[in-house]
Design a protein that fits this description.
Length: 393
């Protein structure tokens, strides 16, 4: 930690560029974003472009990196003389092995890579490097894709979005995709600290946060070589205080970068005072389902993603909770059973020891089974209204 801190102090003032993409010209936006933070030496280098392909969703969902940004980066790297370019990611643990390829093909990422004549890879298909006893905050043993150690340049391309457990999921957390699939759940036991430890191991050359599809009227790209500063500026634009985001705060404390906005030089377009005012997933859930209590501390994405996905579906179909409900996921102590609550659904194998009545097993559990179980407690809004009118349906 000491050497990291000393290294950071010797560096120049952290610089982050914020570029508004004009006229849909993403290549121009990418070029400007990189050049405004000093550019990157790419001549004769091997480059790994690491997007966020957590799910096989469409780019418009705002959950994955826009493939047009990936395409622009490939073209930029080629123009600057990169010798070899690879686009790679390790999708969410929640995805079954059979769906990992879909995270590239259905998102359009594979198409742009093939169009540009570069290779795309799923990290799980490649070799990994093993790490042991790194920190009390990380699993005793975990593996990181070997590609991050054999590439000369790493370009980290996350999406601007929120996260249930970490408030935001930006450049720092995007590196979790470099972990071997089965190691990812254990990183959620102390997510912020564990991700910071991973950031000490995997050091991107450049970070570009994709916010091109967050708001169609205000497409942005945020770039920086300092990963903490990049996340600090981005979280500020999202409407959050960087010091309230544990991952960013701990990253600063461990000497990985700058958190103080007044010490970060922001280049690019004049966007002073802009706030996108993102809502946290927990706030949205509380607003939409006031009768719901979520106890998902320490739950990994294997449980968390399908739970949130089901709730999102219920919201879209205008279904409401008909009674109070508690959803429990992640490792829990026996004392949770002493906490009185009328109805509880236990999800995932981590809750097996304390589970009663409604229990969905699996690691990860099946989303269809979760939905089927939760469905018992929900009712369509129009059904509620019809019952009030005395109509039986």
């Amino acid at each position: 930690m000491k050497s990291l801190e000393e290294n950071f102090k010797k560096n120049k003032v952290s610089c982050v560029s914020v570029i508004k993409v004009k006229g849909g010209d993403i290549y121009r936006g990418v070029s400007f974003a990189i050049e405004r933070v000093g550019g990157v030496n790419l001549k004769g280098k091997s480059v790994l472009i690491k997007p966020n392909l957590v799910d096989p969703r469409l780019p418009e969902s705002g959950e994955i990196t826009n493939p047009e940004v990936v395409e622009a980066l490939i073209k930029y790297c080629k123009e600057k003389g990169a010798e070899k370019i690879v686009v790679g990611d390790g999708p969410s643990y929640y995805q079954s092995e059979t769906r990992l390829k879909d995270c590239f093909t259905k998102t359009g990422t594979a198409k742009v890579a093939e169009k540009c004549g570069v290779k795309w890879v799923i990290f799980d298909d490649l070799s990994y490097r093993k790490f042991r006893n790194v920190s009390p905050y990380t699993p005793p043993e975990f593996m990181v894709t070997d590609l991050v150690f054999t590439s000369d340049v790493i370009i980290n391309v996350p999406v601007m979005k929120t996260h249930f457990m970490s408030k935001v999921t930006l450049a720092m957390k995007n590196l979790k995709g470099t972990l071997k699939r089965e190691n990812k759940p254990k990183f959620h036991r102390n997510l912020a600290r564990a991700v910071v430890e991973l950031n000490k191991i995997v050091r991107p050359t450049l970070n570009i946060v994709d916010a091109t599809l967050v708001r169609k009227d205000f497409p942005l790209l945020i770039a920086g070589k300092d990963i903490v500063a990049t996340d600090a500026v981005t979280s500020s634009i999202m409407g959050f205080n960087p010091e309230d985001v544990e991952m960013i705060k701990f990253g600063f404390e461990e000497g990985l970068g700058e958190i103080n906005l007044d010490k970060i030089k922001v280049e690019g377009d004049d966007l002073k005072g802009i706030k996108m005012n993102f809502f946290l997933p927990s706030e949205k859930i509380k607003e939409k389902f006031p009768l719901l209590k979520l106890e998902v501390e320490n739950a990994c994405c294997g449980c968390l993603i399908p739970i949130l996905s089901c709730l999102s579906e219920f919201e879209e179909s205008k279904e409401k909770l008909k009674i109070k409900l508690r959803i429990v996921a992640g490792e829990k102590e026996e004392k949770i059973l002493k906490t009185p609550f009328p109805n509880t659904v236990f999800i995932g194998n981590c809750t097996k020891k304390v589970a009663k009545n409604f229990f969905v097993e699996g690691c990860p559990p099946d989303e269809k089974e979760i939905k089927k179980t939760l469905k018992n407690f929900f009712i369509r809004e129009e059904q509620t209204q019809d019952k009030k009118r005395g109509i039986i349906i």
